[in-house]
Design goal:
This protein is mainly beta and about 350 residues long. It has one domain (about 1-345): AttH-like fold, CATH 2.40.370. The protein is about 5% helix and about 55% strand. The chain has one helix and 23 strands. It has one helix spanning about 1-15; strands spanning about 50-60, 65-75, 90-100, 105-115, 120, 130, 135-140, 145-150, 155-160, 165, 170-175, 180-200, 200-215, 225-235, 240-250, 255-260, 265-270, 275-285, 290-300, 305-310, 315-320, 325-335, 340-345. A hairpin with a 4-residue loop joins strand 3 and strand 4. The longest helix is centred in the N-terminal third of the chain and has 15 residues, at about 1-15.
Length: about 350
């Protein structure tokens, strides 16, 4: 299994060498392009990379939980001239995790495979991404996430309570100093979640709040980029906060951006010095030795929230599939005179440069 995953990871690396093998250029990401729904809820196979990213905070009889479900699609132009139905021209990956403070550990599963009609696919007309019995599908008025991993299972419904939130400049989101270093990016905050979670302790009914990101791009990171810190937070007053920074190899900030959605639904985007991340406390993984700033302060336009992790050990080792080792976990937000909230914090590039 690990050999197969390693071969697929190598294919992602081949896809990253794009122009040498491409039968057609990757579709560009350009400012001013209007996103259309529901079409843009689906896949964009002409772009290099794409992901659907569902994270949330749950409550059940045994206490709080955090969960993450992510599906990736990668275009592999080196295989596009192969007429075989087994040709790996589109590769799909999935990560799923459950943060359970009662057990003090993160449960994690991953899958990697080429697209295959009827079993492994990302549909283009709406959100419908599947790898065998793992899936993220949009039904009439909600999303359904189904994950059956070795140590846990998720069966969750996430219903929108607010309109789609376009990140950056109407969905055009810069990721670096050059305008070409960008993605199309929208979010769906304040999703109302309910469903079931199964672990070795049994099956429990849960409910809570979640966040969905959908992003697609054709550019690699800036040459000096090491990784990024990202936050998506549902605040208790119904507002929402997204913030990220791209870090250079020397620790300096290459690019930063944030979006604040107000109670009336109006969203304002910020960038540059208006967005700041500050480490408050670090945690060192006993397995990998990597140190992560798991407690952070995030400041956006003078508003400052402190982030506290649901538990420290939320490190994901996905080196067998996407080649990444990172920290991603549930956090609580608090700030003087500000609404508290719950969200997810992602910390990448602390174990080495992210290979995207």
């Amino acid at each position: 299994m690990r050999r197969r995953l390693a071969l697929i990871a190598a294919a992602v690396g081949l896809a990253a060498a794009a122009p040498l093998f491409a039968q057609a250029p990757y579709a560009p990401v350009v400012p001013g392009h209007a996103l259309r729904f529901p079409r843009d809820l689906g896949a964009h196979p002409l772009h290099r990379i794409e992901w659907w990213y569902l994270t949330g905070n749950l409550e059940g009889a045994a206490g709080p939980l955090g969960f993450q479900v992510t599906f990736f699609r990668v275009r592999n132009p080196a295989a596009e001239g192969n007429p075989s139905r087994f040709s790996p021209s589109q590769l799909l990956f999935a990560h799923a995790a459950l943060s359970d403070p009662a057990r003090g550990r993160l449960l994690h599963g991953e899958r990697s495979v080429r697209a295959y009609d009827g079993l492994v696919f990302a549909k283009e007309d709406d959100t419908d991404v599947r790898i065998d019995d793992w899936s993220l599908v949009r039904e009439a008025n909600h999303y359904e996430a189904r994950i059956d991993a070795e140590d846990f299972a998720l069966a969750l419904e996430a219903a929108p309570t607010q309109p789609v939130l376009l990140e950056g400049d109407r969905g055009f989101s810069r990721k670096g100093p050059l305008a070409t270093q960008a993605s199309y990016y929208y979010s769906e905050p304040q999703l109302a979640v309910k469903g079931r979670v199964r672990t070795a302790a049994g099956t429990r009914e849960v409910s809570g709040v979640a966040w969905l990101d959908h992003e697609w791009s054709s550019e690699l990171l800036a040459p000096d980029a090491q990784g990024w810190d990202w936050l998506g937070a549902n605040l208790d007053d119904g507002t929402a906060l997204m913030a990220f920074r791209m870090r250079a190899k020397d620790g300096s900030v290459l690019w930063s951006q944030a979006t604040l959605r107000a109670k009336d639904g109006a969203a304002v985007s910020y960038s540059g010095d208006a967005v700041r991340f500050t480490a408050l406390r670090r945690w060192r993984s006993p397995r990998t030795g990597v140190e992560y700033p798991v407690a952070m302060a995030v400041e956006v336009a003078g508003k400052r929230w402190a982030l506290a992790p649901l538990m420290d050990d939320q490190e994901l080792d996905a080196r067998a599939s996407t080649g990444t080792l990172y920290w991603e976990g549930a956090v609580r937000l608090s700030g003087a005179g500000l609404a508290a909230g719950r969200g997810y914090l992602e910390l990448t590039g602390y174990a080495g440069r992210v290979p995207f």
